[in-house]
């Protein structure tokens, strides 16, 4: 480095200097020769490198860091199959609005078309699922390209970015201008649209708030609480919105959502799309207020009564400051609390069930006893993880990770790596279906080798639960929906350097979980669950 304004070095050193300026603090990767200079720069400067056994886990690990820490995170993938293996992770980050930067190696430009190893143009593949995608043409362009990619990734609505570094660009020495100080624009909402939303909420007789992941991503948790408390509106959450209000808060609800949505006259959806998880925004006669962090997130398939777009902290603070006439919602909230308490009582019975085989609800009943308030829980699965959404109630914001609306299996081990790096002293628990285990369980070796202990609880029912039962209902038979019953996933983790055990009786769950959280290594609790006990919900195929 020659001066604060100029950088010099090979392409990896130039890229790393720009990455540090934007707050990137670690690299997730699977080794590949096309990106050696990035490793060289990291190794010589003490920049942490974490490696995995499949490239999609590298991207998922970066996404977990980006989500939990609300900052950009980095995955480095070698050319060709390295990049294509990471595309599912990129796509999940795109759907989740996660500011992940993937830097890909690329076959040399000077002999492009001659058939170099792993020669393929990545940009047409990644462009549909990134906010910014570019190939860097020279070394001196690298810092500026990194800055542009990360600025795009951090600008609402956030999302992933991709940069290609051809072989001769990343290996060659150059000098370049240092990137400017990061300047991410704050989007000001339309005050008239915010006022319209505030008036609708305040004048409603039976309003409901549903808060999603962007409330956490936009650092708007405190503003959400202030708005809910000032306007006295019950709050339900999904995604990383979970924990925004602690379960004991008078306005926090989870179990009575159907009652609330059926009875509400105004439904306020904040920081989450009007997708299949929310009936595509069709709530019968209720008016919908859709509050989003950017105009691009406004629903195109419905017309809300109000749709403020902009920085969520600004919008929610403006709602809290509303000075117009407000309806008294006490009776509405009291009625929902009765429904909530009744549902909790039913859940308590299910979570204590003494059955053989074990019901999934009992697994979560035992987990609730051992999970700390600040534990990070990670869902990677379909049927088994659906129960997690029902029975676990995160107590703090930023403690819940799931695949999001893209629904990609295989996030578990990568998310676990990112969570453990983010919170070295907290419990990290992966909730995994036995189907999902087939996607990423090999990365238990990556966790063990790098000293990253996590607990993995596998709900092992020997089937693809969300497919087998619906297919039987539709056709009277099922195909391609069975797995090996009672497979020893714990033995897999043992072989990879961790530990684990299989649990077949409900009474053994508690002691097994206690051993898992005390183990200090990746530990898999393989719970044999009832294949007939499928999560009761309709298909999400529509």
From TrEMBL:
Family, similarity comment: Belongs to the TPP enzyme family.
CDD domains: TPP_BZL_OCoD_HPCL (cd02004), TPP_PYR_POX_like (cd07035)
SUPFAM superfamilies per UniProt: DHS-like NAD/FAD-binding domain, Thiamin diphosphate-binding fold (THDP-binding)
Pfam assignment, any one: TPP_enzyme_C
Name the UniProt record assigns to this protein: Acetolactate synthase
All copies of domain Thiamine pyrophosphate enzyme central, residue ranges: 194-319
InterPro entries reported for this sequence: DHS-like_NAD/FAD-binding_dom, THDP-binding, Thiamin_PyroP_enz_cen_dom, Thiamin_PyroP_enz_TPP-bd_dom, TPP_enz, TPP_enzyme_TPP-bd
E.C. number(s) listed in UniProt: 2.2.1.6
Highest taxon in the source lineage: Bacteria
Cofactor: thiamine diphosphate
Organism encoding this protein: Phytohabitans maris
């Amino acid at each position: 480095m020659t001066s604060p304004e100029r950088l010099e070095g090979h392409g990896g050193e130039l890229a790393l200097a720009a990455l540090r300026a934007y707050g990137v603090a670690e690299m997730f990767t699977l080794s590949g020769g096309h990106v050696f200079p990035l490793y060289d720069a990291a190794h010589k400067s003490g920049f942490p490198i974490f490696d995995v056994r499949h490239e999609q886990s590298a991207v998922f690990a970066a996404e977990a860091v980006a989500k939990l820490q609300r900052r950009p995170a980095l995955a480095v993938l070698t050319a060709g199959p390295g990049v294509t293996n990471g595309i599912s992770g990129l796509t999940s980050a795109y759907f989740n609005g996660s500011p992940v930067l993937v830097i890909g190696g690329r076959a040399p430009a000077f002999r492009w078309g001659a058939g170099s190893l792993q020669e393929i143009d990545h940009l047409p593949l990644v462009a549909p699922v990134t906010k910014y995608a570019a190939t860097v043409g020279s070394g001196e362009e690298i810092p500026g390209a990194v800055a542009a990619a990360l600025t795009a990734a951090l600008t609402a609505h956030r999302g992933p970015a991709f940069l290609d570094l051809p072989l001769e660009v990343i290996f060659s020495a150059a000098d370049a201008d240092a990137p400017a100080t990061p300047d991410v624009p704050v989007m000001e909402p339309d005050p008239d649209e915010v006022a319209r939303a505030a008036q609708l909420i305040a004048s409603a007789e039976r309003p409901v708030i549903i808060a999603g992941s962007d409330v956490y991503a936009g650092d708007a948790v405190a503003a959400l609480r202030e708005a809910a408390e000032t306007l006295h509106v019950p709050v339900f959450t999904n995604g990383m919105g979970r924990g925004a209000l602690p379960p004991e808060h008078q306005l926090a609800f989870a179990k009575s959502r159907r009652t609330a949505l059926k009875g509400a006259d105004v439904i306020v959806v904040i920081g989450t799309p009007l997708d299949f998880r929310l009936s595509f925004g069709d709530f019968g006669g209720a008016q919908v207020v859709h509050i989003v962090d950017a105009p691009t997130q406004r629903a195109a398939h419905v017309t809300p009564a109000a749709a403020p777009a902009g920085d969520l902290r600004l919008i929610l603070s403006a709602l809290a400051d509303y000075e117009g006439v407000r309806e008294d919602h006490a009776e509405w909230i009291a009625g929902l609390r009765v429904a909530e308490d009744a549902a909790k009582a039913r859940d308590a019975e299910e979570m204590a069930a003494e059955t053989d085989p074990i019901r999934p609800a009992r697994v979560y009943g035992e987990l609730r006893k051992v999970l700390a308030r600040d534990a990070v829980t990670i869902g990677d699965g379909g049927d088994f993880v659906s129960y997690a959404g029902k029975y676990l109630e995160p107590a703090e914001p930023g403690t819940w990770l799931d695949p999001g609306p893209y629904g990609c299996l295989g996030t578990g081990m990568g998310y676990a790596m990112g969570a453990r790096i983010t919170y070295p002293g907290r419990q990290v628990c992966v909730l995994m279906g036995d189907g999902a285990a087939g996607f990423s369980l090999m990365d238990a070796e990556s966790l063990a080798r790098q000293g990253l202990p996590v607990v993995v609880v596998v709900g092992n029912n020997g089937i693809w639960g969300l497919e087998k039962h619906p297919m039987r209902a539709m056709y009277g038979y099922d195909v391609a929906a069975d797995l090996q019953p009672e497979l020893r996933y714990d033995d897999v983790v043992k072989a990879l350097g961790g530990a684990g055990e299989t649990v077949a009786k409900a009474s053994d769950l508690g002691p097994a979980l206690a051993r898992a959280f005390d183990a200090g290594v990746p530990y898999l609790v393989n719970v044999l669950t009832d294949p007939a006990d499928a999560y009761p919900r309709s298909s999400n195929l529509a």
